[in-house]
Amino acid sequence: xxxxxxxxxxxxxxxxxxxxSSNQAKKEEPRxxxxxxxxxxxxxxxxxxxxxxSKGPVVxxxxxxxxxxxxxxxxxxxxxxxxxxxxxFRYVRNFIVQFGINGNRFTNATWSNLNLxxxxxxxxxxxxxxxxxxxxPRTRATQLFINLKDNRAxxxxxxxxxxxxxxxxxxxxxxxxxxxxxPSRGGQGPDPTMLESRGNDYLASQFPRxxxxxxxxxx
Length: 219
Fold this sequence. Notes:
By secondary structure, the protein is α+β, with helices and mostly antiparallel strands. It has one domain (24-33, 49-218): Cyclophilin-like (Cyclophilin, Beta Barrel), CATH 2.40.100. The protein has helices at 24-34, 68-79, 105-111, 169-173, 192-198, 200-206; strands at 46-53, 56-63, 90-92, 96-99, 129-132, 144-147, 161-167, 213-218. It has an eight-stranded antiparallel β-sheet with strand order 3-4-6-5-7-2-1-8. Helix 1 crosses helix 3. The protein is globular and about 40 Å long.
């Protein structure tokens, strides 16, 4: 997303972000490319999202009735290989781990501005649930997070879970977490804006220990 995706919550510790950019030319490029994005498919009622990560396998059971708009979008992205090679670029201990920026900036630009209509929140953000990052109404695109603890306080802000980890939660908890929070939150960790503009080359050169998704598949 080319706007700042950041929830300014009353509790200052919590913020879920996407990306931002002040460059007008870069803002225009994604809109132009987004028009060519393939049509979304309707997902099965229930399916497994298999993540072959650098730390081991993770299985997430996805439920379309929890959030059909978000699930259909995820289903399409996975089948097109959008999440292959994605780094887990944000890990906030005892909160969330976040991913969903494609390592190829042109691929990312095709999808990052296609913000979705909102799904009502039908499930709580308990530990292990998979949810889109958002900054408010109609700001979901490609970024997702997995809750590392019971974060049901996020429910009232419109964070609608789409599935839950059924195998491999220890793998998620073991992902590399020592780079710290992103710069916009006062840390020295990966900058999502730089990842958007430079792709995985940026992370490989400055944050080489980040774990990543080798392949995401549907079962």
